[in-house]
Amino acid sequence: MIITRTEPLGARVEDVDLTRLGDDDVSALTGLLAAQGVVVFPGQRLDDAEFTAFLRRFGRLVFTVGETPVPDHPDLNVISNVGRTTAPRSTFHVDSSYFAAPPAYTALRTVTVPREGGQTEFSNQYRAHDTLEAGLRERLEGRTLTHVVTGVELSDDDESSAVHPLLRRHPVSGRTSLYLTTPARCASISGLDAEQTKELVERLYAHSTRPDNLYRHAWAEGDVVMWDNGCVLHRADHSGVVGDRVMHRGMATGYATADPGLLV
């Protein structure tokens, strides 16, 4: 593998075939994801079966209720602007953080790259934590945030909310990240009323997503991009897209060998 790190987060890994990873490769990538948050694999030529097999090296696959599955590959979902008259909307978020045990990893593989636009942005949530004012960080110590689902219809058996630490220790790196999601899914912070929660979430969200804390990925044919949901937020920039933008997404539980005590 040839690894090039980017700032303020992310890494580009070349000279690797994702269909032929050994156990040592998976271990190395797990560490790289925990350290850098996002890993870009350019020049891959995976089909959906190979993409699914790659994801399974990182844990059990997870599917989000309400998404459109890929035909014949029910563990993957389609992300597409084809046939839409208005651009999709995307805000910085963590995938499925309303699960008690959210998926550790999300990955996208390109199917159709638009002629212009369609980048994906990622924030460094370790850096968001480390650059908090000391007094604010102390105020957040020990507090939890209730994450809730929005925008999809669930059955009575589906998870719809979960409580997580605002300052979350990563189970692989041991570093602390600021763990929140899009404000609409941040229902309440322990010890605060609704107005105080809203004000603090908006402040933390703005702090996390400052331009100097973002990596912006411009997609190319053959790209596979994987990220660690424990230390980044992400969003797609649908403004200015020219042409079809189609990707297939999968999520994996990850952290199978991590110490559960690090999750709190």
UniProtKB/TrEMBL annotation:
It holds the Pfam family TauD. Gene3D superfamilies: Clavaminate synthase-like. One of its GO terms (biological process) is sulfur compound metabolic process. Keywords: Dioxygenase, Iron, Metal-binding, Oxidoreductase. The keyword Cytoplasm does not apply. One of its GO terms (molecular function) is metal ion binding. Residues 8-250 form the TauD/TfdA-like domain. The keyword Oxidoreductase applies. GO terms for cellular component: cytoplasm. Belongs to the TfdA dioxygenase family. This is Taurine dioxygenase. The lineage of its organism: Bacteria, Bacillati, Actinomycetota, Actinomycetes, Propionibacteriales.
